[in-house]
Specification:
With 524 residues, this protein is α/β, with parallel strands linked by helices. It folds into two domains: 3-68 and 267-522, Zn peptidases (Aminopeptidase, 3-Layer(aba) Sandwich); 73-262, Glucose Oxidase, domain 1. Helices cover 27% and strands 23% of the residues. It has helices at residues 10-20, 33-49, 165-174, 186-189, 193-198, 227-231, 237-245, 314-332, 355-362, 400-409, 430-435, 456-467, 483-500, 515-522; strands spanning 52-53, 61-71, 76-81, 87-89, 95-98, 108-114, 120-121, 126-127, 138-142, 179-184, 203-206, 217-222, 252-261, 264-278, 289-295, 300-305, 308-311, 341-347, 371-376, 388-390, 413-414, 440-442, 444-445. The strands form five sheets. Strands 1, 2, 11, 14, 15, 18, 19 and 22 form an eight-stranded mixed sheet that branches. Strands 4-3-13-6-9-10-12-5 form an eight-stranded mixed sheet. Strands 21-20-23 form a three-stranded mixed sheet, covered by helices on one side. The two termini are 40 Å apart.
Length: 524
């Protein structure tokens, strides 16, 4: 029915998922044996499929220089509060995080400033750092952003990048803070403290350039543990959040001094992105490309939960990698190749802040202005065929009419993001492409399954988020139904193939935050 797309089957996808999420691969940690096995497997599958190497020096591998950073034994965190006893925080129970300094000692001792949501957004007339100097200080803040129902003010109900924890750390570093502590609440973070605990492992960071600003400590504090900080000015954590949400908020120096002793384990190493290409048929068109992406890493071996310490990452993201392999195989099998080329890239260190795609965005196989579209695949649920597809962000690009047309061909309704408050657009690897101007979005399954109750997907998402997301229980099961993954891979394949055969360039809609970067990339 859909040509070569029909060669993509759920059973082929199943085989890859089963292997990539097996205990043998030890959770696909970055810079360790399990991750190396995963990357070699994906590269071998690209070669078997007939893709040409698109990495360094004629290989499938693009080397990504990383620094592994992890708190060592003996971490201590203490707050000295005026006229009150000192407060000591328990590591992992009350507070958790890492250092971005990439040094063996990341100690700090500094005054504390509460900066609301830690946002500087002139286009929304919002600046939590206005009239305050936080250089050399500890900033305490909430993740997320001021609540809004107006799409023109912080995206309405949809989270913008200003609400992401990654932005909070970046902005605090730019402002010269020595440490940034996010007060965790489930509503503002979008997940429970157990996710923060599970993430307290070695953090893979792109190697810092000399002189780059970086935080001695970037971390989270459990809501109840933060109460003494709020009480230092006669408030509760809930009242601090209420203050942070109001227009006109101004940063508040707290009568608190925060001291951290962070001995660190540091190791420099290389990981890899795995990239394969199928050249286009047109002599001019083949210099441009559609890029498909998925991250191959997960959390590796970590804190044991119910006796299991392997974080297999079956849904997140063995599924996307399996689909990437099969879309590459189908593309290489096309008797007549599209005008433009196709690049399939499995990126590393997504779980550490999208480091692999960040590096690829800065060092792509072809110039970013020649990349017409990035389609990303990240985390798919095994519950059968779907009635709809989620392509959040596609409406912001000139590819949108084509997306709508291909969805109709697949009899798929385009579903809006069921959880806009989670800020999914800024949480997956397509964002790294968007930041350098490439029209980019993820293809995700929708919210309605054939043969399932209407609220099935919503209930499962909540259960998965609470019990399995970033947990050892994200494991493959033989009774999984791969029909939906087959369906989404065929849709993504056909969408990319259609754009690859079109003429003209692609870009972002007028006024979009990524349009200036696209204009710049097209000029080079």
């Amino acid at each position: 029915m859909f040509g070569q797309a029909d060669e993509i089957t759920g059973e082929r996808i199943r085989a890859h998922v089963k292997f990539l999420s097996s205990d043998l691969l030890e959770g696909r940690g970055v810079g360790v044996r399990g991750g190396e096995l995963a990357s070699e497997y994906i590269a071998s599958q690209f070669a078997i499929a007939g893709l040409k190497p698109a990495g360094d020096n004629g290989t499938f591998f693009q080397k990504v220089p990383l620094v592994g950073s992890a708190p060592a034994e003996g971490v201590t965190m203490t707050a000295t509060i005026k006229d009150k006893p000192d407060v000591s925080f328990r590591w992992l129970e009350d507070i958790s995080g890492n250092s971005h300094r990439q040094q063996q000692n990341a100690d700090f001792d500094a005054d504390v400033v509460f900066v609301g949501h830690g946002i500087t957004a002139p286009e929304f007339n919002w600046d939590d750092y206005k009239d305050i100097d936080v250089k050399g200080k500890v900033v305490v803040l909430f993740t997320n952003e001021p609540p809004s129902d107006n799409p023109r003010f912080f995206g309405g109900k949809a989270l913008t990048y200003y609400g992401r924890w990654t932005y909070k750390y970046e902005q605090a570093a730019r402002k010269g803070a020595v440490a940034c502590i996010i007060i965790h609440t489930p509503p503002t973070a979008g997940y429970g403290w157990i996710v923060v605990q599970a993430s307290a492992r070695e953090d893979s960071q792109v190697k810092l350039a000399p002189g780059s600003p970086a935080l001695n400590y970037a971390g989270w504090m459990q809501e109840q543990a933060a109460e003494p900080l709020a009480q230092s000015i006669g408030k509760s954590v809930a009242q601090l959040l209420e203050m942070a949400n109001k227009p006109g908020f101004r940063a508040i120096p707290l009568p608190v001094r925060f001291k951290g002793h962070l001995p660190m384990r540091i190791r420099e190493f290389e990981s890899v992105n795995i990239a394969g290409m199928v050249p286009g048929s047109d002599p001019v068109g083949r210099t441009e490309a559609i890029v498909y992406s998925a991250h191959w890493d997960h959390l590796g071996i970590g804190q044991a939960v119910n006796g299991d310490k392997i974080y297999n990452g079956a849904v997140d993201n063995a599924t996307g990698c399996a689909m990437l392999i099969e879309m590459g195989r189908a593309w290489a099998g096309l008797q007549r190749k599209p005008r433009r080329s196709a690049i399939f890239v499995a990126v590393t260190a997504e779980e550490s802040g999208m480091r692999g795609s960040e590096f690829y965005g800065a060092h792509p196989s072809i110039a970013s202005g020649k990349i017409m579209l990035n389609l990303n695949f990240d985390s798919f649920y095994p519950f059968g065929k779907m009635k709809d597809v989620n392509v959040g962000g596609a409406e912001r690009t000139t590819v949108w009419p084509t997306v709508q047309e291909v969805a109709k061909r697949f009899n798929l309704k385009i579903e809006g993001d069921a959880h806009p408050e989670q800020g999914h657009y800024y949480r997956s690897d397509h964002f790294s492409f968007a930041r350098v101007g490439v029209p980019a979005f993820s293809v995700n399954g929708g919210a309605h399954y054939y043969g399932k109750p209407e609220d099935f997907a919503t209930k499962f998402f909540e259960e998965y988020n609470d019990k399995n997301y970033h947990q050892p229980s994200d494991e493959y099961k033989d009774d999984w139904d791969f029909a939906g993954m087959e369906q989404m891979a065929r849709f993504g394949f056909t969408l990319g193939e259609t754009v690859a055969n079109q003429t003209g360039t692609t870009t972002w809609m007028k006024g979009d935050e990524f349009l200036p970067a696209r204009v710049k990339s097209l000029a080079h």
